[in-house]
Design goal:
Elements (H helix, E strand, L loop, with lengths): L1 H14 L30 E2 L1 E6 L15 H9 L4 E6 L1 H4 L8 H16 L3 E6 L39 H12 L1 H18 L5 E5 L14 H25 L6 E4 L21 E3 L2 E2 L2 H4 L10 H9 L1 H6 L7 E2 L9 H15 L2 E4 L28 E5 L1 E9 L4 E8 L7 E5 L5 E6 L2 E7 L2 E6 L4 E8 L1
Helix pairs in contact: 5-6, 6-7
């Protein structure tokens, strides 16, 4: 026993030998000049985020966020997920102009404390659906909603069509164009960032969920989306980035295009002048959103991937898909959909958050007992949460149950630990190269490698 301990200590000491050289984490997809960079942590390790949205749209005021509990974080981490996109609402934070709810901020902090306890990273998402309470939803406060008296009609059977009501479209125009509303939105984000900039669970900020805008006469939807993204969303994101950076230099900024990207339309977003931008599109198909089945022959996943990767390749920013997952997961082709979607997301993104972690039916990931609903178990794969080095390849074969990670370990000073996440079940972890598994717990493994060493990790089910 003593000999084993001494040998292990000597090996670890060798692996930890410092060097002054520097190596960056590697890009995803394509040749180096056409590649998408990885999301990184404060130590430069390449991150992979896998998780779910946490939403409580039903409660506000004193009951805000009451549907989100510590159980959500414990159950997510137990199934291998390390990421949550937490919905917060401007109408709860600032119910009257300039009056920010301390009670609401404390409720957010309580949720973040649970995330910290279970080692789950969080992005704060300023969520809106159909703009806000003026139209029977959540998001932008009524005092910040201006419609110029234009009409609005509810569509209970097709809520998304409410975005095209004249009053809703005009409200977006005023949010983007009115100086006082621009300032109010920036101040709101400065309040959030200042309050939570030092919370260890907070990875970054998503300024607005699924932004839309006003179509002009004669415009088709794709043309309108690209104009709105170019002329209104790009300057909005730059304003909000400036507001956040006035109080937080470290948090990532997750910027979304319009939801029209789901139809395979490349975004019109321009450059966001910030060093820590993440492109955060959503991954939804209209037919499946209506409860339909996946149609592989339509090549929707392939078309989406081709379109959605253009922006991050051009502007050299990482990708994290903010929402995805169909309504009816039990359709005949849904098993194939999840396998093909997971493979696609793994090719170009640094991660994703599915819609949503809740206990029930519909979009919920799990049922009331906490068991995965049909086909949702396919979202739970082995993956590398953080890689201390340059990733050469990383992929999981759901048919064989084998995950392989190949990387060149960092030569920089600082952490050399690569962290693996393993879903429930029996998994074997094998390492080749000048590296070893230094710690193993249920659902996690930590690998230490010598500086600049080529390393191959193989995780096998069973």
């Amino acid at each position: 026993m003593l000999r084993t301990t001494l040998v292990a200590t000597a090996v670890v000491a060798t692996l930890l030998a410092p060097t002054a050289a520097h190596a960056e984490t590697g890009p995803r997809g394509g040749a180096d000049g056409d590649a998408i960079p990885a999301l990184t942590d404060a130590h430069g390790r390449a991150l992979t985020l896998r998780g779910w949205n946490l939403a409580d749209k039903s409660h506000s005021g004193d009951q805000a966020l009451s549907a989100i509990t510590e159980r959500h974080f414990g159950d997510m981490r137990a199934k291998g997920f390390n990421f949550a996109r937490l919905l917060v609402f401007w109408d709860d934070l600032e119910p009257r102009p300039g009056q920010y709810s301390e009670k609401y901020l404390r409720k957010i902090e309580r949720v973040l404390d649970w995330a910290r306890k279970y080692d789950v990273k969080v992005v704060l998402d300023a969520h809106q659906d159909v703009f806000g309470p003026e139209f029977g939803s959540r998001g932008i406060p009524e005092w910040a909603t201006r419609t110029d008296g234009l009409p609005f009609t509810h569509h209970p059977d097709d809520w998304f069509s409410e975005y095209f009501e004249p009053a809703v479209q005009r409200a977006f125009t005023h949010l983007y164009e009115d100086a006082d509303l621009r300032s109010a939105q920036a101040r709101m984000w400065r309040v959030l960032a200042q309050r939570f900039r030092d919370h260890p669970a907070v990875l970054g900020y998503d300024p607005i969920n699924e932004p839309m805008g006003e179509l002009r006469e004669g415009e088709d939807l794709a043309t309108a989306a690209r104009r709105i993204e170019s002329e209104q969303l790009t300057p909005m994101y730059n304003r909000i980035a400036d507001a956040i950076r006035s109080v937080d230099r470290d948090g990532w900024l997750f910027v979304e295009p319009t939801p029209i990207v789901g139809e395979g339309v490349p975004t019109g977003l321009g450059r966001i002048d910030d060093p820590k931008v993440v492109y955060a599109p959503h991954f939804y198909n209209g037919g499946m959103e209506a409860g339909g089945d996946y149609d592989p022959s339509a090549r929707w996943i392939e078309n989406y991937e081709a379109a959605v990767t253009l922006y991050p390749k051009e502007y050299k920013v990482p990708v994290v898909v903010g929402e995805w997952g169909p309504l009816n997961n039990s359709r005949p082709n849904m098993n194939r959909f999840y396998r093909e979607a997971m493979a696609s997301l793994g090719r170009y993104s640094s991660g994703w958050s599915g819609w949503e972690w809740c206990y029930g039916g519909g979009y919920c990931a799990v049922d009331a007992t906490g068991a995965f609903r049909t086909n949702k178990e396919l979202t739970a794969e082995p993956y590398a949460e953080a890689v201390a080095g340059t990733v050469r390849s990383s992929a999981y074969d759901s048919g064989t149950g084998v995950y392989r990670l190949a990387y060149d370990s960092t030569t920089r000073r600082g952490p050399r630990i690569t962290e693996l996440s393993l879903p429930p079940g029996a998994w074997r972890v094998a390492v080749r190269g000048r590296a070893l598994v230094v710690r193993r717990t249920e659902g996690r493994a930590w690998i230490l490698a010598a500086p600049g060493a080529p390393v191959t990790v193989t995780v096998t089910r069973g």
